[in-house]
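Before we proceed, please read the two lines closing this message. Let me know whether the structure tokens fit the sequence:

…
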Amino acid sequence: MNLARTSGTTTGPAILDAMELASDPELEARFVESAHRILSDLVDGGAALGWVEPPSLDEVAGLLGDVVSAARAGDAALRVAYLGHRLVGLGYWLRYSRPTHRPHADLEKLAVDAAAHGRGVGRALTAALIADAREAGIEVLTLDARGDNTRALHLYRSLGFTEYGRLPEFVAVGDRRYDKVFYMLDLRRQEQD
């Protein structure tokens, strides 16, 4: 697969979905290891991705396997970002499993390699995931983030997400405490506008 062609530009990130990733055996073979590197490095640097300690390769492989299976069933979307042939970001949403909440999904993870910050990778991944949610009939896309993650919170607000709740000092990392912030994007309202 020509990653430069996929991105539409030779300088911006190439954004692929789970099926495009699976269609390229070379990329797919390196994907889990590359994703593990990104997630582990970010968590080791203090990023708020749901782990206190860097996840194991097996844990990341299991997680991504579950997301890809859910994507194939129409209950998730996975997007990955490449600069050249190097994985620099990934993100996914999962549909809520309760029958009454099926039209809703939670943006579970968005991770961008620190070396690629400022290159539009997070914005491109999130925009693609929003488009996937809209196409899948998702009405409300939610997420939560640690309150000190100002870069991510700014990105989400710039893409139309609004804060709908906050748990003060809810996240404990050692002796430090952080707010847990809840955001939502109401895709129903966007379609009516």
Q: What stands out?
A: Helices lie at 3-7, 18-22, 25-44, 57-72, 121-135, 150-158, 187-192. The beta strands are 14-17, 76-83, 86-95, 104-112, 140-146, 162-173, 176-186. DSSP finds seven helices and seven strands in the chain.
